Amino acid sequence: MAKMRRLTRYAVVLATVAGLGACTSVKEFFTGPPEKSVEELTASEIYERGQAQLAAGSEVAAARTFNEIERLYPFSQFAKRANIMSAYASYEGGQYTDARSAARRYVELYPSDEDAAYAQYIIALTYYDNISDVGRDQNITRNALQELTEVVRRYPNSDYARDAALKIDLTLDHLAGKEMEIGRYYLKRGHYSSAINRFKVVVDEYQTTSQAPEALHRLTEAYLALGLEREAIASAAVLGHNYPGSDWYVASYELLTGRDIVPDNDEADGFFSRVYRQVIQGKWL
């Protein structure tokens, strides 16, 4: 009896579905009508679909949907906005190459638009987010530095320039860290000239980074290993002038006084100051 009641209810459902008309399938009755293809939608409707996909966490699908607006309605008011949204959605979905391509297209087409700074910032982030540790090749880091610099140069008054400037400092420190890693490798193995060249790059090109004090100390160390006392003293003098309270200055000072190259008394600071003025600044009076 129970089985017959279930079959009866099922028959009622089928009858109801049949009564909806020949144009409505059983699947449509339970799931709703099939989603329209993008070719059937207006630019506004496609944009709304892309936003809905983005809100649902389907960033890659959203990017593809926004791209359809540019394909189907390239001259509509939604095309420009869809371009930047495609870049954003691709970036959020981890599709960095696609994000970079869409963002570059936006910057090229609308360089003076209010969202151009954001597009350039997205380009930079696609590199910055993929910076690897200093033990690996740093081409991506250099690309990040270049694109972050473009944000600051082209859009200095934008909200993104401030954050780009901070990331530039971190990127420079990363590049300096790579030079230090190689320099320490050479120093440890007694390749002092090669080590000196690496440490000089840090001192000359990355002097504002956190790596600079160690680079000056390592220069002092390498010069002493080669018997170049004058150069060692000059490096220590620069270190003492710019980073007088750093541990690296203390290490260099102990290295030099331990070999009786500089006085081991209260006159040492005056000695380094005099060396800095004479050797570095060229002021002999």
From TrEMBL:
The keyword Zinc-finger does not apply. It comes from the Bacteria. Residues 1-22 form the signal peptide. Keywords: Cell outer membrane, Lipoprotein, Membrane, Palmitate, Signal. CDD domains: BamD. It is a lipid-anchor. It is found in: Cell outer membrane. Residues 41-233 form the Outer membrane lipoprotein BamD-like domain. Its main location: membrane. Belongs to the BamD family. Part of the outer membrane protein assembly complex, which is involved in assembly and insertion of beta-barrel proteins into the outer membrane. Part of the Bam complex. NCBIfam families: OM_YfiO (TIGR03302). This is Outer membrane protein assembly factor BamD. It comes from Paralimibaculum aggregatum. The gene is bamD.
